[in-house]
Amino acid sequence: MGYFNPKMYTFVVFKSLYHIQFFGEINTYLMSEQTVRDFSTDQFIETDQQLSRLISNLPGFVYRCANDANWTMFYISDVCEKVTGYKPDDFLYNRKIAFNDIIHPAYQKELHEDWEIILKKNKSFEHEYKIITASGDERWVWEQGFGVFDEKGKLMYLEGFIRDITERKTVQEALVVSERKFRALFNEMADQAVLCRIDRNEKGEVKNTSIIDLNESFIRVLGIRNPLDIIGKSPCDVLRLDSIPYYNEVMQAISEGRNLSFVADFEPLEKRFKVSAIAIQQDIFAIIASDITELMHYNDVLLEKNKELENYVYVTSHDLRSPLVNIQGFSTRLRKHTDKIGELILASEIDQTTKENLDELIKQKIPHTLDYIFNSVGKMERMLNSLLQISRTGRIAMNIQQIKMYGLMSKVIHAVEYQLQEINARVDIEDLPDCYGDEAMLNQLFSNIITNAVKYRDNQRQLKISISGVSRYKKVLYRIMDNGIGIPKEHLEKIWYVFYRVDNRHVPGDGIGLSVVKRIVEKHHGKIWVESTERYGTTFFIELPALNFSEN
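RESULT FIELD:
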């Protein structure tokens, strides 16, 4: 290699580094001995400064070292201090510490063995390992290097580049942990799940879909013997179906990055599944199927029982009206007969004592008994009407449409305007979001709640009712707040019961208003709950669909 002087030392190191392609083109600065001699001192200084600036801006440090047990350093760039915490002079000729000493013990032997293999093959070395910094922290580094040989093929030293990759390794390790968690969840979940890929033609049109992964539940339910045979096949072939339910809708949703859920029957297994297609990334999606066969069976049974119960209530309530009409009619006739008997007694010649006794029976005791019968009949009739109303709420088919809620609420308030004016009540209605439902039923729902606020007002202060609403995902939440007498905690769960009333003595009513309200909300696939503080007021929360829906 000829003579070697200090002026070209850095230059030769960087020339070697070009060989491992960290700068420019390979061997850009490779020069003959004679050419180097011809360079002026100023040219060497300028070149040395340029290369020094370049190397100081690298994301790591360069080195030249001996191939010995300590990796004795002949040269190491300043950036090593940022990575290791040690100054370059600490490593040079092992003045304070050998570079091998900062390599994690778990990697020391492995690095020496790998270098020996690489040097024998005269190839580039590349490795990732841990070091222990001056502060005692463990950091990951990536090293790339090669051996420099003389003209006779004798190894002179090693040259290379080392950079800190701790952040990248941390992310990689986190991804590995995440992948393990996903894999565990994927395989252990009770639902059947497959990962699929959309295959497209040159025009970007969907050509086919293929399975790229599947979980244990899917394998078990379908009785798959060798899961590897399934990879790459289309779901149609695996499920042995002529077509996949909602296939076009799923492809459209996944292409737009949306998720889609639907219910589908799988005839080969005689089961019904709730299927969710979940977009994961470009043209990759998951299909998760939940077996709802048994749930749907119980749901059908429950619906049938509810229909039977509604029919029973309707028939019973209807049939009981006939005996009540008879009781009321014959009681009225009995009252007329009693009056006639009174007239006959007055006209007859009976002693005064007997006449007085008969007069007491006819004018006081018998009328009192008849009044009790009439009151009981009236109460029974109101109860039967209430039961019929509840039954009718469940039986009537809904006319589902978009409801302009502000207009509907204005109608509700207008219907009770006289009562509100009479008690000087104040009603504030905010700009309400629209929902979907049956207008007549929703009118009854909100009318019952407003009427309740009027009934259970605090007579010591002006009644104030506030009505507001907000859109939440696929639902709309309405809030009706009043400053009435409130509901005691022990009554909050019972107010939805049929015929249950918080105050039976001072507040009129039959106790079915809120039962009907709850029934209407449930028919709309919504939710209703109440919050109340005694003596301060009550707030009803009603959640209704923001999108069109099916009654069933």
